[in-house]
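Exercise: predict the fold of this chain.
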Amino acid sequence: MRQLRIDSLALHNFKGIRSYEASFSPSGATVTGHNGTGKSTLADAFSWLLKGKDAAGNTEARFSIKTLDTAGEFIPDLEHSVEAAFTLVDDETGETEKVRFRRSYVEEWKTEAGQDRKLDGHHVDYFVNDVPVTRGKYNERLTSLIPQNLLPLLTDPAAFFRMSWDAQRGALVAMTGKVDAQEVAGEREDFCKLLDHLNGDSLEDYRLKIGAKLKKVNARIAKIPTEIDATEAATPEAPDFAALEAKKEELDKRIKVLDAAAYNLAEQRRLQFAAAAKIRTEIGRKQRARQDLLNQEQMKLDQATNEKNRERRDVQNKIADLKDQIRREQYAGGSIAAKRSQATDLRNDADRLDEEQVKRRKEFERISLQPYNPASLICPRFGHECRDPHACSQGEAAFNTSRAETLERYRAKGHQVNELIERNRRRAQELEDEANKMEEANTQKLADLNARLKEAEQRLALLPETPRRTLTLADLPDAEAFDQELAALQTQAEQATAQDAGGPLNNSEKGALQAERDQILRKLGLRETIDKNNKTVRDLRGELANLTQAKADLGLLLKTADDFSQALTDAVEQKVNALFHGLKFRMWKQYINGKQEPDCVALIDGVNYPDANTAGKINAGLQVIRAISRHYGLAAPIFVDNCESIAELEDTEGQQVIRLQFVNGAPLTVTPD
């Protein structure tokens, strides 16, 4: 197992503690003191150093790091930091590694013209072995020791129980591994058959499928009796089918005689209409040929007209192209104005930055002449002046260091701004030169285009336009003779259809016979309906018998699936709870209807975790930490608060434990084991 141990923890201006350093043995320490002396502050400092949050999970925005004066206001110009030395021990190889981490919370000040300086925010500095690093490198180094997601679970007995139930459940299952369904199924033969039927589905999906099938079967069983009754009620009585067949044969013979008489008259009329159709086809052909001739003549005339207008059209296209070029050149003037506007903005920015530089130089001179004020060494709790020479020298040294760092930042900022001013003015001049060149080229090009446009417009005025003429059928040669020919053909078609072919057909007798025959056919059609309905009733009764058996089979499968689900449930809880003693987890929520849902409820000696006493909660948390450490092969310092409420702590198998214990009236004291 890899164990991360804390050797020392130093606080500087952290949550009211001006300066404090605690040492710890490899097995831990006992931290004692009255309420408010700083026991929990040590735990918060450890947590903030490694995670950027206090022990309760709050960031700097939610808890106060800064040191306050007697009026409750924070004391300015203090750097707030936590530093710790760690040893990483590999129990298997015996290898050890030393590393120091420091996190500092630093104020950022700004001064505006004519005003006192104001706090503009804060930033955090990170150090590994006293070397400044980025936040990413800092966290990367921490993760190389212990993954960040495991750190709270290994150091805080309450961290696991603050997670959501599903996160707790996932962590426990990850530690125990999934239950082997094959192993559980081996207890019963029907369980083994069930696994063969799953075909890759989960047990819950299988139960849903069987339930859906059973629901469908029950719904169908409920409908079948109604369908049988409805089919029997809709089945008509059977008529005398033999008598109906004989009457139908008699009617068919009479209708056939009437059809033969009507055929001769219909054939004569068909020949007349065929002759008329042939004449009308010839009329259409001649009309299409005449229209084609008209289209050809119109095309020839249009080509001659276009040829006459070609030079004028070319000049018109040239004028349109020149106007388009002029519009594009005029639009380019906007780019010239934009460059000049950009150059003006850059000069204005340079002038504004010049003014800010003047103010920055004055502030630099003020800070450089600012004397050290020893009044900052007044105790914020008791109000007396510090008489520790070593602490006083540290205060003045910290002031000088802070002032030197501030002046260096001002100096670096001044160099950056001077470079920006020079760069802005140089770019402004470049933009102005580019705009002048563009304007000169644009003016020359517009003059040339306008001259060419004027010349083209003068040329267009000298070219007359030849209008287009549209031809009609009357303009074609022999138009009158063609119209007379079409009129003669139309007369022939009308005469062909006007000839008498023997009078109209009389179908009244045939209609009466067909109506009587249709009634007989409808009655004969009942035979098919009756046979079909009788077959439907037989099929429905057979389906009902099959569904009844299927219902019984599906019910048995569902009962087996429910039993197997309960067996898996019991196996999961047994594996999880084998990790602990006195602490149990209920991993499933059981409903009255037998349905189960995943859950995770912690029970301490049968009592829900939120309702247990402080000692029970802490020891339960230590059991969880021990199980997590075993699973991942990792250990970290454990901070245990409220130890005065516990008669005996749970065994942690040699892990480092820092116990926070209330002692009435006692100062903050750290006693290594």
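Check your answer against the key: The chain has two domains: 2-177+584-672, 241-461.
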